[in-house]
Write a structure and sequence with these properties.
- With 662 residues, the chain is α+β, with helices and mostly antiparallel strands.
- 35% of the residues lie in helices and 22% in strands.
- The strands form 7 sheets. Strands 14, 15, 16, 17, 18, 19 and 20 form a 7-stranded antiparallel β-sheet that branches.
- Strand 23, helix 21 and strand 24 form a beta-alpha-beta unit.
- It is elongated and about 100 Å long.
- The relative contact order is 0.07.
Amino acid sequence: MHQSQVQKVRELTARLNQWRCEYYNLNAPTVSDAVYDRTMDELQRLEENTGITMSNSPTQTVGYTVVDGLEKTAHTTPLLSLEKTKQTNDIMRFIGGHKVLLMHKLDGLTVKLEYQNGSLLRASTRGSGDEGEVITHNARAIEGIPGWIPYLQKLVVVGEAYITKPTFDRLKNTLRDSSGNPYKNARNMAAGAVRNYDAGDCAGRGVVFSPFGVLEGMDSDSKAERLRALEKLGFSPCKFIMPDKNAPEKIISNIISNLQKIAESDGLPIDGIVATYDDIPFSLSCGRTGHHYKDGMAFKFEDDLYETVLRGIEWQPSRSGELSPVALFDTVEIDGCEVSRATLHNLTFIKGLDLKLGCRILISKRNMIIPHVEENLDRSGFDKSIIPAVCPCCNQPARIDTSGAAETLHCDNAGCSTQNLRKFVHFVGKKAMDIEGLSAATLTRFINKDWLNDFTDIYRLDEHEAEIVVMDGFGVKSWRRLWDAIQRSRNTTFERFVIACDIPMIGRTASRELCREFNGNPGAFESAVVKGFDFTQLNDFGEVLHRNICEWFTSNENRNFWEELKKMVNIENKNTGTPAETAGNLFSGKTVVVTGKLEHFTRDTINAKIMSLNAIAGSSVSKNTDYLICGEKAGSKLDKARALGITVLSEQEFLNMVGSAA
């Protein structure tokens, strides 16, 4: 079969359908009946010669089917999602010397087609991945789906149903979604069309289908060869490029850029590029998670947006007294997770979005991790009534603070129970004293019994042992485990000790810098404060952090707590590294930042390793950063490092350099 004949079938089908629309729907024919009839005859001959008939061919029965509902169907092979990234270095790690296809990630609705004896038996949506909806009645209304093919064995094809950008621009001002609102993007319009009960309505939406894979059928072990074979059967597969398996990152980036340009030129709605292994047996050996198959990865251009409705704002007191607003909205599913809450940051952010209850909002998962409110679709002015006059926990007056870069809401009641609880949670947390077994719920019970009035009371809980062992959920063994954890926490580090004291803005990075400067000696640190030490000379310490330290130590309550806690704990004298590690190695004196997930280290252990090399373990990328160690799913730190010309190392490159320096 000559490929030009297959292409001609598709072209004539599209041309005749356009003419039919002009004649029947627009009452404005552009060709004569004679031209239409000759073209119809030519299409019929080609369909007979090739054995290919598109499902929307005008040679088939006139009219579209209407159904009462969409029948459910189970997917024998689950139609799972893809692991996602926004960094090309993750794509490079995924490729790993294997032959891959880099393919358009069309932004529409995934559809599965099942053929037997050359006939389309069923078309269905992806749905949950395990179960979809039958949309066979709409197959004739979707361009690019053959109704008959010259392949008589069972064939299962999966692809994307989508609406091109020009078609969406033409229809977006006239069509409405099920809520009566304009469609905000082509993906939603395509999904609504494909799942429409009336195939006639679907036909008017200009939906197109392009396959991206074959689930069953065809003998080839190459995905690329299977897609080329589909093209000979009348399909128009997603565009793809196959780079050399050892192509450098620059070439991969160029291919991604070229595929973007092709999509823009063709008016294709894409939201990324898919990398998938070409070798099918190898792909099958990669396995899967409950969310995605491991033989593919999606390079995303930007975070997906999901529409929902704001139902409430929850104000949560922090340990500092700031009331942090959290949006409560109708649940949306993002990357397989149900999301119904997202931070609103502060009053300035809320006012900037003109938020009010009941408005439609757009939600994303920034960098595919953190839920975020991106936009308000129903802006009509800010509603002041959503700002509470009192703290929701202690019912004391709330205060708006305008002194900072953003307006914030505060509870100034030092006796606020929620603030107090959060302070205890911070003290016992993993970054601070690391006392396992003292959950927020347990702390609340102990506080309510008046056993915990300040942090050091934790080390006197044995005075209440008899009462604790008879409490619900406790017993002798539970108490013993808790008390052992409390005793273990007495042996701590300078960093944990300082973090537990809760000096504002002193976290792991700042505490490590203080530990380095004062050799892990709390007395030396305290003495420096008294003598007026300039903390701004330390790495990443500014005026605000300097002022926070000095002001904290001016409080008699804080100073007394500092002294009492020192008596109760033993602060380890940590060795910063052996002479072989610290002397003359490549990282000595350098600032090293880590981003992404590492294979051989946790974040704590990699920072400990960095410090053992007499290097500074930084938390943010700046002009003072010397190296960035980059793991999987690296975020914005990688982009910033590249912009600043900072040396970027993979985990293995770091290990190799450490090995050569040791």
